[in-house]
Every structure is written in structure tokens, then in C-alpha cells.
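I'd like us to work through together how a protein chain folds, taking it slowly. To get us started, please write out a protein record for me. Go ahead whenever you are ready, and we will take it from there:
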Amino acid sequence: MGDLHELLSGYEAELAAADACKDAVGAVNRQIAVIVRKASALMQSVHHVPDQSEIAAICDQA
């Protein structure tokens, strides 16, 4: 019975680690989404600038 208890304990530890990993991946995905939104907004700003010399100033502000 001890082996079964150890096996179940190990399984619970694996589940906890998987949940922690899932949470970490979710946090990274949220950060990536923010970066993508900012990059998209920056690209739209740059796309509508008639004077190409202003692009560097826009990028510096972002």
C-alpha cells in the first residue's frame, strides 16, 4: 500500500507542477498579447505619417 501512496503523491506533485506551468504560460501569453497590440498600434501610427523623418520620433515615444 505504501507504493500506491507514493505513486499518488507523485501524481499530485506532477499535477501541481503542470498547473503552475500552465499559469506561467498563460502569463507569458498575456504579455505577448500586450506587446502585439502595442506593436500593431505603432505600425498603424508609422503607416499614417507622411513625413518619414518623423517615424524615429514616434518610435522613441513608444
